[in-house]
Amino acid sequence: MTKSELIARLAADNPHLYQRDVERIVSTIFDEITGALAQGDRVELRGFGAFSVKQRGSRTGRNPRTV
Questions:
Q1: Minimal CA–CA distance to 25: which of 5, 11, 39?
Q2: Model-wide pTM > 0.85
């Protein structure tokens, strides 16, 4: 599901809300999650999932066509 599909579904399920208001709500939620992750915080939405940033070491990439 894309962000626009999520917005359309939420707007359809909540006809008392304008689609532009649903867009603002979804964008605000995503912005807050993104901001928290950028600061290194963990975001947990009970009943949905948890988001966190994990640092990985660098590795050498390879091109399968040239191997």
A1: 11
A2: no
